[in-house]
Amino acid sequence: MVRGLADIGAEGVLLAGAGRAILLQIANPKVGHGVAEHSNFAERPMDRLRATMTYVYAVVYGSEEQLKAVRRAVNRAHAPVRRGPDGASHGYSAFDADSQLWVVATLYDTAVTVYQQVHGTLDDDAGDRIYREYARIGTALQLPAGKWPADRAAFATYWESQVRGLRPDDKALKVARDLLYPASGPRLLRMAMPMARFLTAGLLPDHVRAGFGFDWGPAQARRFERTMRLMGRVYPRLPQRIRHWPRDHYLGHLVVDSTVPHA
Q: Which of 34, 75, 130, 214 is the most exposed place for a label (fewest CB within 10 A)?
């Protein structure tokens, strides 16, 4: 049986890449400026993670009713995220297909990157199936099916061209500071942030990492490699109820409360 997105998407270890995905998203100004002007990581640092993961889990694992509820909530949150071009901004819209493609691309590439770091390389059949199925994360909103690159080779070309041009601007840097150095929020979250910052830095492309000002050298790279090897030995041996707890948690709350904060 060829593994698909439903077979890997519930793995909680994928959340280790959350910071990477967000920083890649906001390094694109069409996404980053909208986030900067319509999200508040400083006061509610967990909101975007909760919104994104609830949406992803609903698309992959949820009932039709759950998916409809979360789609409505995301669209409501996206509706005010728009601005025309002016002297201070090139403009943005949360409904822009290119922006939605970039967001989904960062989620896909990050999920596969983290999964393979921990579980080993996916074979071609599984990789192709997961890639095809990931398109639904975008097409369940406004992403036209034809915008998703046709196959993994086409995606690699798209990805490399987009990443090559990423240069975090001042707005992206402020969002990153608010996200990675929260002044409020649960104490456990703040205690976990040094490791979250370290994993985020290690997973980012070199020039994007430098653009966000991370201190990184050979010692940090060696530590990162050791950390990922340790995760690869320990995480797969955890009971499934622990590995899949984030999915069950977010979907469980969606049943009770079908509202989702800013995506």
A: 75
